[in-house]
Amino acid sequence: MCGHLGVLALVLLAVSPVAADDLAPAKEGSPPTRSTPRGGPVGPDNLTYTHEGMFQASLRVALGYRTIVPYSKGNYCGDTDNSTASGNAAVCTGRAPFAFDLELGYGVARKIDLVAEFRLGVEGDFDSFAGTGKTGPNVFHVSPGARFFFSDAKTTKLFTTAQVVFDFTGYEEAGGKSRGNDIGVRNLSGVWLDLERGYGFYAFVGETMTFSRWWRFELEAGIGVQARYR
Fold this sequence. Notes:
Layout: H1 2-23, E1 41-42, E2 48-49, E3 55-69, E4 92-95, E5 99-109, E6 112-124, E7 138-153, E8 156-167, E9 182-196, E10 199-210, E11 215-229
Antiparallel strand pairs: 1-2, 3-4, 3-5, 3-11, 5-6, 6-7, 7-8, 8-9, 9-10, 10-11
């Protein structure tokens, strides 16, 4: 009987420290030993932040360069060319009107955000025909889609997006008739920096292509800031 009690005592002494460490809270300044709640820090050194389960609001600005190719020869796209019969350029290139983007989002998974971007033009674009001396409509796009994160490294990560563009900018023909709306695709790719659970900064390059009203391709680069909350 004494022998059995001795063996039982040795087993209890061996198991007790392990159980105590598992149940005891982490000491101040040390990383947690268990998984953290959604939206909290994860990863090495407790410094990588996930957006999962958090609502998001972003503001970003960019400078862009674009190319527009009308489907119908002679349609005005912002440039003139005396060598053409209409006097309008067949291909228009130049700086895109300055705009800023507002974005709402929600983290549906650790590495996936659903987003809805609203592009609001600050500068007016070209008018319905050359020589009016007036500016045209301000750009207005709505671009829903998703953002995907990868290559987490403490507070930084890479990202890319897949978005559909609905362009509601009110361009008109020379006679005042609406040129209709446009549709296309959009992508942003860049580097993300999360310094705190509730906010982050990022730099990006973007490409947008629309093809219903005319063929338009725009390349841009910019910066953004995001705030997050539950």
